[in-house]
Structures are given as C-alpha cells and as structure tokens.
Design a protein that fits this description.
- The protein is an all-alpha fold and 60 residues long.
- 0% of the residues are buried.
Length: 60
C-alpha cells in the first residue's frame, strides 16, 4: 500500500488506521479442530501415580 501511495510503510499504516481501513484476508484458526479429527479421552485423569516412570530414570 505504501508503494501505491508513494509513502513509507509506517505512514501508510497510520493513514489506513485514521481512515478505518483494514485488510481482509482469512485468519488462522489454530484452536478449531480439523474436519474428521477424532477426540481421544484422557485415560489418566483419575489415576493415582504411585511410583516413578522407569524409563525417565537416566542410566549411568
């Protein structure tokens, strides 16, 4: 837009804000599940952890 108006990018942005202009483009929807995505249950929700995981202990 700045190239079209012959001004730098910051001035073009300021003028667009003053006029209330805003770009229209599809936004990212990162929190929406994909089509056909299966929601899996969290199976460890009410399970008490009684001992540490053996695979997490480093071997020396």
């Amino acid at each position: 837009m700045g190239d079209v108006l012959g001004v730098n990018r910051k001035r073009a942005g300021r003028l667009m804000r003053l006029m209330g202009l805003e770009a229209i483009y599809p936004r990212r929807r990162t929190t929406w599940p994909g089509v056909g995505h299966k929601i899996y249950l969290y199976l460890l929700r009410n399970v008490a952890i009684l001992r540490p995981d053996v695979t997490a202990i480093p071997k020396t």
